[in-house]
Amino acid sequence: MKRNILLFLLLIISATLSSQINMVSKKIFLDSLNRECTPENYTYTRVITNYSQKSARYVVTDFYKNGRKKMTGATLDRDVLKKDGEFIYYFKNGAKESVINFKEDRKEGKEINWYENQNKKSEKLNIWNPKTKTVQTLILNFWDENKEQTVIDGNGEYEEKNQFILQKGTVKDGLKQGVWEKTDTSSNITFNENYNKGILLSTTNVDEKNLDNSKKKIKDQK
User: Fold this and answer.
1) For 32-54, b where at least 16 C-beta lie within 10 A, e where not — what string?
2) Residue 150: is its pLDDT beyond 90?
3) What does the CA dihedral 140, 143, 149, 154 come to, rounded to 10 degrees?
4) Rounded distance between C-alpha atoms, residue 169 and residue 156, angstroms
5) Around 205, how many Cα atoms within 13 Å sit in the side-chain half-sphere?
6) CA 96 to chain centre
7) Entry pTM
8) CB distance 201 to 195 below 8 Å
9) Percent of the chain whose predicted confidence (pLDDT) is above 70
10) Distance from the CA of 148 to the CA of which of 13, 115, 192, 218 falls in 20 to 30 A?
11) 219: three-class secondary structure by DSSP
């Protein structure tokens, strides 16, 4: 009899703790564009671990479908992601991808990136300009996939490819300088961007045959 009562009490305590944990945390489902969606159509999940508590910052963690972390950090708003402090990003295989610092939902401070094999990719510095309300990113050091360092102390040649964009050009004093080529690999559209000390001066749209679109239109009209 006493054993049954003890088991009953343990079940009540377990259920109470489980209920408290569920109240503290909130889990939402996100699609590939990080929009909230239904459990049937999700790509990622997001957990806010201290959701039910009033706090200045809330711990937020995104997960891939395989259960591994995609991102973790803190948000100033429990219902809207407003990044604050250090955020760590991960590849789907669990390897670290980036460590980026944020302040009130903007990049500020050091940023480090890695390749999926954990070779270092880049070291950057994000500087917030309160007058223009923009973030300036300095490229301090960069290594290509063969571990060759092509940007040293803010000077050199930079080439990077992410999921959809390939960009390459010259870095001087940490800033983009001269003509940079940027290609949208999903649509095969290329832009030539002209920079001076990191400031974009002009953009030229180039098609897949590396011809200026404006010249091509003139030719087609003849």
Assistant:
1) eeeeebeeeebbbbbebebbeee
2) yes
3) -10
4) 9
5) 8
6) 12
7) 0.79
8) yes
9) 82
10) 192
11) helix
